[in-house]
Prior knowledge:
The protein is an alpha/beta fold. The chain folds into 2 domains: about 15-375, TIM Barrel (Alpha-Beta Barrel), CATH 3.20.20; about 390-435, no CATH class. The protein has 16 helices and 14 strands. Strand 3 and strand 4 (about 35-40) form a beta hairpin. Cobalt (II) ion (CO) binds near residues 233, 269 and 340.
Amino acid sequence: MSEEFFPTIPKIAYEGPKSRNPLAFKHYNAAELVGGKTMREHLRFAGAYWHTMRNGLGDPFGGATAERPWDDGSDSVENAKRRVWAMFEFLQKCGLDYYCFHDRDVAPELNDLAASNDALDAVAEELKKAQQATGIRLLWGTACLFSHKRYNQGAATSPYADVFAYAAAQVKKAMEITHRLGGEGYVFWGGREGYATLYNTDIKRELSHLAALLRMAVAHKKKIGFTGALYIEPKPREPSTHQYDSDTATCLNFLREHGLMGELKLNIETNHATLAGHTMMHELEVAIAANALGSIDANRGDELIGWDTDQFPTDLYLTTQIMLCVLRMGGFSTGGLNFDAKCRRESFEPEDLFHAHIGGMDAFARGLKIAHAILEDGRLEAFRKERYESFDSGIGAKIEAGEVGFSELEAYALNQGEPLTRSGRQEMLENLINEFI
Length: 437
Ligand code: XUL
Ligand code: CO
C-alpha cells in the first residue's frame, strides 16, 4: 500500500545521548552489541495492536480522544485492512521488530461466529502481506474473551456451557491464525475468569473448567503443529473483582495442580504485578525459579492511581531490574518485551504514539546496558552467592541433599551453640545499583 499514515514522522533513528531531537533514540541502538548480542536480539520489542490501533483513550468519565485519521470508525473489513498498514508503518518507523494482537483488535466481531471467522481470515491475509513486506514478526496472538456481552460472567469459567463452547471455538481459531502468521507465542489472559461475588460462584468447578480449556489448547497446539509457546498472563483483578490468575505463584500452583507445568509459561506484566501487591522483579524471579518465565508485557502503573493505567515504562530502576532478571535467565527464547501500554488521554495525537514507544525503548536500552554492566562487574552476583555459602559444604550441603533430619540437626545445634549471621547489606547493595544507574 502506498498511502502514508504518519506523513510527518520519519523513521526514528539512533542519534545518541547528546541528541535533543524528541523523535530520535538516545540509547536504543538496534545493532549495538551488548555482551555479544545486539540490543534488538536482547530486547525483542513488540507493539500492542489493541492499544496502538484500537484504544480510543477513553476513561470512565469521558469518551475517546485519540485521533486516528486512517480509521473510519466502522466495523468493515476494509477499515480493518487499512489499519493493518497503519500499524505496520508505525512499527517499521519505530523500529519495533514484533507485534501482538487479540483476534478482535485486528478484525471486527460480526453477527455470528462464522462471519467473524471469515473477517479474521481476510485480515490475516493482509497481516501476512504486511509481515512479508516489512520483515516484522508476530510475537504472540490471543483471543479477546472479555469484551463481548456473552462473556459477562467469564469465558472458560462462565457458568454457561454454551459460552465455554463459544470461547473454545474462538481460541481454536485465534491459535490457528497465530500459527498461520508464524507467531512465536499465544497468550491466555482471563480478564473475566474470576468472579464478582462468591454468593453465586463455585470456585472448584470454574477452576476445573479453566484447566479443561487450557488442556484443549495444548492438544490443539500439538494437533496443528504450532511450535510457539503458550503463556498465562497473571492479573489479580480488573475487570473481575477477583481473577483466578492472580499472580505468578497462583498461576504456577494452578498449572501444577492441573498437570500443565511445562506446557504453559507466563507472560508477566508490570502493572499486574503491582496491582497484586508485588514488584515486577518479584514476579519475574518467582517465574524464573520455576523455569516458567516466557514473555513480558512492558508497562508500569501509577503509584497514586489504584487501577491498571498501562503507562509506558520510563523508570530506569524498573527496566534495570527487569533486564537483570532476563539476563540472569539467559535471555528470551520465544518471548520479548511487548508494550502493553497506552498514551494518556491527554496525548491524543498520532505523534504521541512515537514519543511513548521511543521513551519505553530507550528506558529498556538503558536498563539492558546497566544490568549488563552490573553483571559484568560481578559484585552483586558474588554477594548473593556468598550469602548462601554455608549451604555449599558441611551441614548446609547435607540439608540440601536431604541427608539429615531433625535428630541429626538437633545434635548439631546442641553442639554448635548460637548460630552466627551476617548483615544482609541492603543499603550497600542499593548504593551499588546506583553506581551504575
Ligand atoms: C489486560 C492485559 C491484556 C493482555 C492480553 O490488562 O494486559 O491486554 O495482555 O489479553
Ligand atoms: Co497484558
